[in-house]
Design brief:
Elements: E1 7-10, E2 17-21, H1 22-27, H2 29-37, E3 45-47, E4 50-54, H3 58-68, E5 70-74, H4 79-89, E6 99-103, E7 109-112, E8 123-126, H5 129-133, H6 136-143, E9 156-159, E10 174-175, E11 183-185, E12 192-194, H7 205-215, H8 220-226, H9 244-249
Parallel strand pairs: 1-5, 1-9, 5-6, 9-10
Antiparallel strand pairs: 2-4, 3-4, 7-8, 11-12
The chain binds magnesium ion.
């Protein structure tokens, strides 16, 4: 077991949550309602302009992470969209300061996106680890109660479904689980596929991979290089069919 309490930086959207803008949610409300009634889909929480679903077992996963690692959240969305989600993930306000930091879009390196079509979405955001490593306060708090002569640069892992976001970082400082989606709507929003997911559960892929990191005595990048993270296959749930028509004819 490594004596070093490493830093795990988590993305939000596509890793811990699935969110849908209210305009799409309202448009597809009948489809969602049908799936809630059939118990194929849990109801989301309403957070600002979004319907938000928390990933199965996410709160227990965070609890476990906080026990074994320093944990931070870094999302490239706006601050006001992150705060209510962090509150939902860690409902106990005494728990929240246990996060080493929770950062938003303002902490990202920004570039113009030359291929942007949507005028409200013309920027690209990058999570540069140098921003973390060069923050004195983060280093100081991370170093508390740790073995001597260690460097945060050797013991930081970003977990983000988006590879582009970590473009500027040293190699093997991140892993990229498949973007988590609780469901997918078809192109004209008339049908829905719902997926099973156990990645954050106790015997799930991510926790197992992180347990290996806990045992590892080298640096994070050495571990990532030697143990590529591999997602389990994507599996759809067997949807409870809507039998209201047939039962009505009996
Ligand atoms: Mg993401």
């Amino acid at each position: 077991m490594s004596k070093i309490k490493r830093l795990i930086i988590l993305d939000l959207n596509g890793l811990l949550i699935h969110r849908v803008h209210k305009s799409l949610y309202v448009k597809c409300k009948p489809l969602f309602e049908e799936q809630y009634n059939l118990r194929n889909l849990p109801r989301p929480e309403r957070k600002g302009n979004f319907a938000v679903w928390l990933r199965p077992n996410v709160k227990e996963f965070l609890e476990w992470l906080l026990k074994h690692f320093h944990v931070a959240i870094w999302s490239s969305v706006l601050y006001h969209n992150i705060a209510p989600i962090v509150e939902a993930l860690l409902p106990d306000e005494h728990e929240r300061p246990r996060l080493l930091f929770w950062w938003n879009q303002e902490h990202c390196f920004t570039e113009d996106n030359p291929t942007a079509i949507d005028p409200t979405n013309t920027k690209l955001f990058f999570k540069r680890l140098t921003s973390v490593w060069d923050t004195v306060d983060i280093n100081e708090r991370w170093l508390m109660n740790q073995p001597s002569n260690i460097d945060l640069r050797d013991h930081t892992l970003l977990i983000d479904d988006n590879k582009l976001k970590v473009r500027d970082n040293p190699i093997h400082t991140a892993i990229h689980p498949r973007t988590w989606k609780l469901f997918e709507l078809n192109d004209d929003n008339t049908d829905i596929k719902i997926y099973k997911d156990k990645v954050l559960e106790n015997d799930g892929q991510l926790m197992k991979w992180l347990e290996g990191l806990l045992e590892w005595n080298g640096t994070v990048s050495e571990y990532v290089e030697k143990h590529p993270y591999i997602d389990p296959p994507l599996e759809e749930i067997e949807k409870e069919p809507n039998n209201s028509w047939s039962s009505g004819w009996d």
